[in-house]
Amino acid sequence: MNYLxxxxxxxxxxxxxIGGLMGDFVKGPLADRYPVRIRQGLxxxxxxxxxxxxxxxxxxxxxxxPDRYGHGRGIIIDIFYDHFLAxxxxxxxxxxxxxxxxxxxxxxxTYHNQLPAALRVVAxxxxxxxxxxxxxxxxxxxxxxxxxxxxxxxxxxxAEAVGDLARQEDDFLGDFHRFMASARxxxxxxxxxxxxxxxx
Length: 200
Prior knowledge:
single chain; mainly alpha; 67% helix
């Protein structure tokens, strides 16, 4: 659910970026369901998800959260990391975040017919409420967590994690920057390898 992190790690290719955004909405084999470069972006999304799940710093972040969040801890950290990237964007990109976000919103409109049905529903809300830029603000973190909590089959108090963010922000932020340093190297290697998964 960390849209901004996946977009950033997808690199500059527009179709890789669209694939990176689609990753949470596309399940199962990719085969020939999408154009090659979108499939590459989807494949990269999956590789980054696996890398992030096993990374010691994301694990540390999850462990900082109380047990009451259960399996939702991973969702919470995804949103926290989008918040940290948006807040520190100028340290990661020379392109201003509002300009970057506007380009992504245009891509969502250009590739609308290629998007999975669920993302076609989400995209207008993302654009109208400028999610990618709004992640800079802690209030937006709470709103995003509340939206996600409503989609879970078993209720979890995800929005309460904003308090955990306030109490342990420096620790979470340290985890994030260390993770991003290694994730950027990982993603660059993956992009340079240019995988073309026929049935990943």
